[in-house]
Design a protein that fits this description.
ten-stranded antiparallel sheet; Lipocalin; 19% helix
Length: 144
């Protein structure tokens, strides 16, 4: 059911409130479950960051260890997946967000947190919470 609700949000752009309603209904994610390589995509809500990720050709994230995370895996000039240094590196921690303690990626050089909730065994929904922004950027990750 959650996977269908996520797909509906991906297919039909909605509001941040619609996306957060689904996010809040999902279970937390243990940081260990995030280890590995993930393909990513946007849940369109009109956030200005969506255009930036498209321009960067963002493809996902790579979690090698709790202290070794590539938050921005993008397509390079040859069309291959590669870590981008646009946002630097990150760490993986458990952080409380919207009343739930869940796996969260913390950017090393920026006041940005990506909080994750479980859609199914191989899919998570993410909310990028950036200090100073009115609304979060919403995305999803699927295990490679």
């Amino acid at each position: 059911m959650s996977a269908q609700r996520l797909q509906a949000l991906i297919d039909t752009p909605g509001t941040v409130e619609d996306a957060l309603a689904l996010f809040d209904a999902l279970d937390p994610v243990d940081p260990e479950a995030m280890l590995g390589d993930w393909d990513g995509g946007l849940v369109p809500t009109g956030n200005p960051g969506e255009g930036m990720l498209d321009k960067l050709r963002w493809q996902g994230k790579a979690f090698r260890d709790h202290d070794d995370v590539d938050p921005m895996v993008c397509l390079d000039e040859s069309g291959e997946r590669a870590a981008s240094d646009v946002m630097g590196a990150a760490t993986l921690r458990r952080v409380e967000y919207r009343g739930v303690s869940t796996a969260t990626m913390v950017y090393d050089r920026h006041p940005v947190f990506d909080h994750f909730r479980r859609v199914d065994e191989d899919t998570v929904m993410g909310v990028m919470d950036r200090k100073g922004e009115d609304a979060p950027l919403v995305f999803f990750l699927r295990r490679r």
